[in-house]
User: Fold this.
Amino acid sequence: MALAPEADAEAPHAHVAQVVKASNTSFGLGMRILRKPRREAMHAVYAFCREIDDIADEPAPLDQKRAQLAEWRDEIERLYAGAPTKPTAQALLEPVRRFDLPKAEFLLLIEGMEWDAEGPIRAPDWARLKAYCRRVAGAVGMLSMPIFGAAPGPASDRFAQALGEGLQLANITRDVGEDAAEGRLYLPRELLAEFGLPEDPAGVTAHARLPEARRALGQEARARFAAAMAEVPELGWTKVRPALLMHAVYSQMLDALERDGFRSLAKPPISKAAKAAAALRAALLPPRSAG
Assistant:
């Protein structure tokens, strides 16, 4: 029996909400404080990111990954023509119209996944790493800002790109061991050279000076966070509260790594209650730098 039109209309929203729920992502904390149209838009953006990331990470032949990511490029074109076919793209249709989401940022995200799909990234130089962060994290920020309701302009762009880069660098700092097990090494080669580390994943994880290199990258992540926070007074902290929640959670994660001396390659044990408390503070109080 055919579904009623109302059920058909709700299916894409249910699909992306389930993707968010199943991922158990910290991003869910920031999404919850948004009103329904903005929350559903962020669910759709997140689901898009999750689906293309899964393509890049899946154990499939490279030709298959290329074809699937190329199909997503075609789907973005269909989305902006008003005729998407995939559930996630269908869930993006109204957000694209309502919030004027830039097509170029979706394509940048796909390009970042294409870089990952082509083979394990190993010891990129700083310029390449920053370009990668711009694609896989900065683009998410650029899509998120209009959904949050932040006024468009240079301050919004600087905030989105700085915070996105900081979050990605924090992830890299935390995930060195996990990435190495997959043959990846995102630490930049200049940083490896500074601390005398080899440019191969297994050698890095066994090196005595790895904690120093991780600390340095963590400091770079904090510097990007500080650059983002400097833009908050112009933007208005209430307009970027979901992003501030993510900043709070990731700052807490860096604090945990710091207390450990960046020695353990396991993810730092931060309880859900601690994450929720950090998120609540960020939701209710402006950051100190924002006044």
